[in-house]
Specification:
There is one protein chain. By secondary structure, the protein is mostly helical. It has 17 helices and 10 strands. The chain has a two-stranded antiparallel ribbon with strand order 1-2. The protein has a two-stranded antiparallel sheet with strand order 3-4. It is elongated, with a radius of gyration of 30 Å. It starts with a strand and ends in a 12-residue tail after the last helix.
Length: 465
């Protein structure tokens, strides 16, 4: 039998594993929310811990918490933030909609570790109390939303933005590398007038860049923290200066420019900033599917498809067909994007699930936002490193498709008229001959004129691409 100790909360005694830093409320939550296996993301746990450290500093500076207790809480918080106590945060995402159980889990672990550091038994409520000291000036209803924003901003800049930026940079380099290599354009999946591979990849790069910039704009709104609002936004039981001062401490501890909410009632009762961020991530996911599909279709074959691009061969592609290599990085990215779109649907529902002074789907919202940020950042970095950075053009195949394209006839329209040019294209298609052969056989114009007018290099823009 596992050894336990007895802890208490407002409902009475609860048995807690003797080695646990947490207390009664965490143990009770483990009994009451045996739902799935998804733990509260450590990004949220660490963000809550960081806010608690900032709060202890602030309360000590304001004279409402002893410097000794603040120091103990700070030392305990450092142990959590370095990952040493990760095993003591066992609660699942699927708990109360306010995140109260996870807030109390952090309060109890910090108090439990602080008490041990003070020379007392692990856990307990003395000399540091989880509610009276660690949670001083706070409520789950303002501190959990603040932690949601802190976690989202930290994940955005540590994991999401670097991965997306690597992909953007890789696409830009490929665009430059492929400058001037002409290919057949395609609209409606049908042949169209020429473009260059450089132009096509510049479009991919622009989509990723624009998606990242829109996400950054959305993330900026998450820099607002409703600390000091306590239970319903009024600031009851918090020092009047606590909110602004604590936000300042959070900004110093994270090196991100967090600021007090313009309206704490709005930021506690709703999560519009995170809903907007999730929507921006969905928008980027939509763009990435287009990019991934264009690249894998251009590389299809290698003999029975388009075959205009060659992709790095990272692993065998089939358990039965020897020598096969597949566009696996593109497929992984597409699946990630599908998941991000699904996450956004859940975030939208969660964001709409507020009543009066509180949104009650907070854990759902932050779980999905962090999941999307992590997936997109990792997938973009992988797609860049294991696919885009190694892409090359199969110039022979691309030139063949270009020369066979009937849409080069578009260059003849200004000279001979749309209807006559169409007749040339139909003649070439029906007889299986080239446009040039059709134009000459029909007596439309001479060879020198045709060669001068139907030049793909002149059809890709005023500066030749």
């Amino acid at each position: 039998m596992e050894k336990t100790r007895t802890e208490t909360d407002s409902l009475g005694p609860v048995e807690v594993p003797i080695e646990a830093y947490y207390g009664a409320q965490t143990a009770r939550s483990l009994l009451n929310f045996d739902i799935g296996s998804e733990k509260m993301p450590l990004g949220v746990v660490h963000a809550l811990t960081l806010v608690k450290k900032a709060a202890a500093r602030t309360n000590a500076r304001l004279g409402v918490l002893s410097s000794q207790k603040a120091e103990l809480v700070g030392r305990a918080a450092d142990d959590v933030l370095c990952g040493a106590l990760d095993a003591h945060f066992p609660l699942v995402v699927w708990q109360t909609g306010s995140g109260t159980q996870s807030n109390m889990n952090v309060n109890e672990v910090l108090a439990g570790r602080a008490n041990e550091l003070a020379g007392h038994q692990r856990g307990g409520k003395s000399p540091v109390h989880p509610n009276d000291d660690v949670n001083k000036g706070q409520s789950s209803n303002d501190v959990f939303p603040a932690a949601m924003h802190v976690a989202a901003v930290q994940t955005f800049y540590s994991r999401f933005a670097p991965g997306v930026e690597r992909l953007r940079s890789a696409l830009a380099l490929r665009s430059e590398h492929f400058h001037g290599i002409v290919k057949v354009g395609r609209t409606h999946l049908m042949d169209a007038t020429p473009v260059t591979f450089g132009q096509e990849f510049s479009g991919h790069e622009a989509q990723v860049h624009q998606g990242l910039e829109r996400a950054k704009m959305a993330c900026d709104a998450c820099l607002a923290l409703p600390l000091g609002g306590t239970a319903v936004g009024t600031g009851l039981n918090a020092h009047p200066d606590f909110g602004a001062e604590c936000v300042r401490d959070v900004a110093l501890l994270t090196s991100h420019p967090f600021r007090p909410s313009e309206n704490r009632f709005a930021d506690m009762a709703a999560h519009d900033a995170l809903v907007a961020l999730s929507g921006a991530l969905r928008g980027l996911a939509v763009a990435l599917v287009k990019v991934a599909n264009d690249i894998r279709w251009s590389a299809s074959g290698p003999r029975a498809g388009l075959g205009e691009l060659t992709l790095p061969e990272n692993e065998p592609g089939s358990s039965i067909m020897p020598g096969k290599a597949n566009p696996t990085q593109a497929e992984a990215l597409i699946m990630v994007c599908a998941q991000v779109m699904g996450n956004d649907a859940a975030v939208a529902f969660g964001g709409a699930s507020g009543n009066f002074q509180l949104n009650v789907c907070k854990p759902l919202i932050i779980r999905n936002v962090l999941h999307s940020l992590e997936l997109l950042g990792d997938a973009c970095a992988s797609f860049a490193a294991r696919c885009v950075e190694g892409i090359e053009v199969n110039v022979t195949r691309a030139r063949h498709h270009l020369n066979e394209s009937l849409m080069l006839v578009t260059a003849l329209s200004p000279l001979v008229g749309y209807d006559t040019a169409a007749k040339v294209a139909h003649e070439a298609y029906e007889k299986g001959i080239t446009l040039k052969e059709a134009a000459l056989s029909m007596g439309i114009l001479d060879e020198a004129t045709f060669d001068a007018v139907v030049d793909p290099q002149k059809m890709i823009g005023p500066e030749g691409g």
